Amino acid sequence: MKRDLFRRYVWLIDTVRHAKKIQFEDIAERWLNTPLNADHSQLALRTFHNHRHAIENLFGIRISCDRGDNNRYYIADWPKGNATKLKVWMLQKLSFSGLDEDTDPVKHRIILDLPPEEKYGLTTIIEAIQKNRVIRLVCAIPTPDNKTSLLIAPYCLRYWRGQWFILGKDIETDLLHAFNFDRVLDISFSDKYFEFPRDFSPEIFFRDFFGMDVNDKKLPEVVRLKIGGRTRDEVRTFPLHDSQKEIMTQQDYSIFELYLVPSEKFQTTILSHGTDTEVVYPESLRQKIGEQIRDMAERYARCLESTYNTPDR
Q1: Per-residue pLDDT at 146
Q2: Percent of residues in the chain assigned helix, strand, coil, to nearest 5
Q3: Separation of first and last alpha carbons in the chain
Q4: What is the tens place of the pLDDT at every residue in 126-165?
Q5: DSSP labels, 263-304
Q6: Are strands 163-170 and 72-76 parallel, antiparallel or unpaired?
Q7: What pLDDT band is residue 258 in, cutting at 50, 70 and 90?
Q8: What is the distance between the alpha carbons of residues 21 and 19, in angstroms, rounded to a whole number?
Q9: What pLDDT is attached to residue 117?
């Protein structure tokens, strides 16, 4: 399949999705003005329908027509689970496959923190998940039980905040661990297989945790945060957790309620908001954050005292 077709599919999905609902005539007009249409060709209705059917067959994304609303098109049942999200991610990745051409001026105006390449071992993990194969994993940072080389039964992959993670069970200790792919030094197949537990749901498992900071020995609890400043708008747009609810709104701040395990990563995130965020409940978490702030203040106070007491040379 030609690369340009993938780009067209991505463009059509994005156009319909962001418009919510849109008539074919408006789609055709936008096609005339998109940089993707270098020769300014018309989008024929037959071509549009062919694209619709191809997108549904290849990626499971259905572009439907609401005949009762002036024949406007929309994405049906979006999002349709993690499988569709993964397919869209793959589709977008393929659509940029031509940016390495020397004649493409766009490549000089896209800056990435990391090279646009697959994370090391990602395909190995996917195959291991498909076949329930145990893998040997060597990581740079020891696990809580001080191990860097483990035989892991890979339960699932997760893409969270721009990074790939794997959740797996150490078959020697039965402990669940989450590994950041950036910290993985080596991945290889073992000659062992495992039986994936039928009652294990990755989505349900992660529901009570903050990102990949998992600890199945701790129970989730209600947390209330008083958030103001620019941070309030940020967490409204990008919630800290799926359970987040805004339960009180004032002119200068809001109270947000979450239900999760308040892990170290979660506490670090709160501290990163500076004075915009304050823990109001539970008292135990408020005290932990207060102790960390006090320790930081004492360190900086000693630093300032040392600076001011240094005689001029």
Answers
A1: 86
A2: 40, 25, 30
A3: 72
A4: 889 989 999 999 988 888 888 889 999 999 988 888 788 9
A5: -HHHHHHHHHTGGGEEEEE-HHHHHHHHHHHHHHHHHHHHHH
A6: unpaired
A7: very high
A8: 5
A9: 47
